[in-house]
């Protein structure tokens, strides 16, 4: 069921549809987007860096030597900031071929192409039994039918992607590991928290940021850890 507490979902629909058109309309050579003081190139049909991931990127903790998996990497920004944070190994996955091209380009642009591996994968499918200290995810926020791969960066048909993420994420998280997860006030926050708790994770809000003064588009970062058994 789609989250309805945020005001103006019709406005959000129009805004998201316009963004999808913009993602498709850039030239084949790509478009440079500035994000948190750094530049990233996005090729057509790639989700652009935006406020949605900033609470996560500005608040997540990467310990020196951590292995990191970024699920739904888009242009690769979260994975690249994990590299800057001191990770020893970063793997970035996405189902969108355009995102793979963008993320690989940006890894090289920032000098992390030896440290960061980019793989085409539907969530964890290409990872076999690999495990990581940190898993990050900026998945589509809304339970809404997505007609193409670009729409899938914002909308999750029948909430299948988010549901599958929590069904499988525990297999790929090392003991004592943590998940950093992005969501929004116009997304399915209650459903995400329920899925995480059902999978055995505690959920804590780390940070938030708004893309507009009225806070109609407010974004959150959650940290999730395996819940401690009751004594």
Structural overview:
It comes from Undibacterium pigrum. It holds the Pfam family MTS. GO terms for molecular function: S-adenosylmethionine-dependent methyltransferase activity. Residues 53-187 form the Methyltransferase small domain. With 231 residues, the protein is α/β, with parallel strands linked by helices. 27% of the residues lie in helices and 27% in strands. The strands form 2 sheets. A 7-stranded mixed β-sheet has the order 5-4-3-6-7-9-8, with helices on both faces. Strands 1-2 form a two-stranded antiparallel ribbon. Strand 1 (31-35) and strand 2 form a beta hairpin. The longest helix is centred in the first third of the chain and has 17 residues, at 9-25. 45% of the residues are buried.
What secondary-structure arrangement, pairings included, does this model have?
Blueprint: H1 9-25, E1 31-35, E2 38-42, H2 54-59, E3 67-71, H3 77-84, E4 89-94, H4 97-109, E5 116-120, E6 132-137, H5 160-168, E7 173-184, H6 189-198, E8 201-210, E9 218-226
Parallel strand pairs: 3-4, 3-6, 4-5, 6-7
Antiparallel strand pairs: 1-2, 7-9, 8-9
Outline:
This protein has 231 residues and is of the alpha/beta class.
Count of individual domains: 1
Q: Structural class, please?
A: alpha/beta
Sketch the major β-sheet: 7 strands, mixed
The top level CATH class name: Alpha Beta
Tally of helical runs:
6
What are the segments in which pLDDT stays under 50 over at least 5 consecutive residues?
A: 1-6
Helical content band: 25-40%
Please give the order of strands in the largest beta sheet.
5-4-3-6-7-9-8
Q: What is the H/E order?
A: HEEHEHEHEEHEHEE
| CATH fold node name | Rossmann fold
Q: Would you count the extended β strands for me?
A: 9
Mean pLDDT: 93
Q: Note the overall shape.
A: globular
Radius of gyration from the CA trace? 17 Å
């Amino acid at each position: 069921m789609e989250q309805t507490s945020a005001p103006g979902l019709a406005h959000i629909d129009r805004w998201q549809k316009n963004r999808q058109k913009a993602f498709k309309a850039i030239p084949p050579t790509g478009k440079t987007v500035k994000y948190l003081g750094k530049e990233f190139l996005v090729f057509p049909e790639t989700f652009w860096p935006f406020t949605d991931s900033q609470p996560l990127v500005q608040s997540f903790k990467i310990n020196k030597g951590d292995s990191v998996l970024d699920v739904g990497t888009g242009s690769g920004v979260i994975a690249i900031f994990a590299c800057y944070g001191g990770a020893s190994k970063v793997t970035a996955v996405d189902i969108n071929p355009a995102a793979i091209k963008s993320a690989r380009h940006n890894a090289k642009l920032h000098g992390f192409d030896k440290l960061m591996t980019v793989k085409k994968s539907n969530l964890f499918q290409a990872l076999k039994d690999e495990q990581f200290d940190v898993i990050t995810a900026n998945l589509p926020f809304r339970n809404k039918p997505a007609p193409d791969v670009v729409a899938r960066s914002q909308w999750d048909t029948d909430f299948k992607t988010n549901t599958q993420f929590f069904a499988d994420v525990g297999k790929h998280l090392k003991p004592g590991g943590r998940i950093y997860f992005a969501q929004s006030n116009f997304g399915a926050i209650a459903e995400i928290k329920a899925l995480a708790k059902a999978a055995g994770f505690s959920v804590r809000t780390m940070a938030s940021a708004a893309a507009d003064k009225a806070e109609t588009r407010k974004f959150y970062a959650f940290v999730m850890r395996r819940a401690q058994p009751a004594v």
